[in-house]
Design a protein that fits this description.
Layout (H helix, E strand, L loop, with lengths): L1 H6 L3 E3 L2 E2 L11 E6 L2 E7 L9 H4 L3 E3 L7 H7 L15 H11 L4
Antiparallel strand pairs: 1-2, 1-3, 3-4, 4-5
Length: 106
């Protein structure tokens, strides 16, 4: 999964998109796009041997900003509108409802 994420350009070290073979160094910042979310990790150290996922978290520092609450998302316009698969195109009524949510003043 990590190699696929690198291939798709979802992994950055510093400001550069990296390949899966890129070796990390202590202190580097890794930015990961996981779906709609972005995670920011800083490498603190490396384990001497392979460890499980729970222990691997001890070797990096998570600097991901906290997610905004739904009320804050609505105020900033960051709501995600998801339609169920197989429901077809949005109707004119759906579009009007969406516009009312996005711009209630009109």
């Amino acid at each position: 999964m990590a190699a696929t994420a690198c291939r798709n350009g979802r992994v950055r070290v510093g400001d550069a998109v990296v390949k899966a073979a890129r070796e990390l160094r202590v202190g580097e910042t890794v930015t990961l796009r996981v779906g709609p979310d972005t995670r920011i990790l800083v490498v603190r150290d490396f384990p001497a041997a392979r460890v499980g996922a729970k222990l691997a978290a001890d070797y990096c520092e998570d600097r991901t900003p906290p997610k905004p609450k739904p009320a804050e998302q609505k105020a900033s316009g960051e709501l995600n509108f998801v339609r169920e698969p197989g429901t077809g195109r949005p109707t004119k009524r759906d579009r009007r409802k969406l516009l009312d949510i996005l711009d209630p003043s009109s």
